[in-house]
Write a structure and sequence with these properties.
The protein has 107 residues and is mainly beta. Helices cover 0% and strands 59% of the residues. Strands 1-2-3-4-5 form a five-stranded antiparallel beta sheet, with no helix packed on it.
Amino acid sequence: MEFDYTNQLQVRAGIAYEESPVQNPDQRLFALPDSNRLWLSAGATYALSGRTTIDLAYTHIFIEEVKTVQTTVTGLTTVAANVEASTDIISFSLKRKFGGGEPNPLK
């Protein structure tokens, strides 16, 4: 969702849920323990002028705890583990529009 807080400031937030295509513990790799994920995001855009804006956003991803089981090629060793993870993403941008004509008016 997005909300025009003022003529210069827009705020936004979102939520997403992703199901992992990997459902069996023996198909899940230690290096990539794919699991279901819940994304929570928030951000804002501030217009410095009709041509220049600043964007800032933050996302936190909750990754569901899963079990992984791996057996060596020879079948002699089996390793099992519960894997739990999360991640944070922060982004910032400064955008400047160039070109002829009048700049777009602020909202």
